[in-house]
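Weekly puzzle thread! Below is a chain. First person to post its structure in token form gets bragging rights.
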Amino acid sequence: MNPSPPLRIAIVEDEPELADLVADYARAAGYAAQVFHDGAQALDALRRDPPALAVLDVMLPGLDGLALCRALRADGDLPVIMVTARVEEIDRLLGLEAGADDYLCKPFSPRELMARIRAVLRRAGPPSSAAPAVPVLAIDAAAHAILANGKPLDLTPTEYGILAALLRRPRQVFSRARLLDLAREGGAHLDASDRTIDSHVKNLRRKLDGALPGLEPIRSIYGVGYRFDP
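Winning reply:
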């Protein structure tokens, strides 16, 4: 039996020396490395032949890393790690809200990046070519309900709005304020602050655990907000 080919990691970085360094570490870690220096060029290539994971710099010619991440997320669930020289909290929020699974500030250790790549790939599970699992949670928009294994959860309008917003954008990280905005856009009439969302999420977790024991799909991202992991 022929051995399986190594997982391919796309590195989108406009600094050639850094891109080559990361590629060398990726190959040493057992991955196949594919390097791009332009965001628009990378988008076309990655859409044609998606890799196992993409490492994106924020500042890129052609198409910046945030726009590239959003475009890739719109196409599917490609795991993404963002790297940037920007260290402000708002930049980290923008990267995670664009759909990145992780965020690393420059200068960084290539060994740490490899460790984060392994962690993100573990969370992502098997490649998307595997047969998709039957969804455990589903939105019934007509009934304004969320179904757990086909049965409606007993949710308040606020809880429905928050959970529906998370379900529609799996693996995307949202700040509390943005999550409330999305819930309102979905038709929920919320009279709440971005801090009271913690109480609603706590109630949602309790109800989800009652309907689906052992499943903990709502993850807290320290200092940022929440995301839904299917």
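Puzzle host: Confirmed. Bonus trivia for everyone else. Residues 26 and 114 are 7 Å apart (CA to CA).
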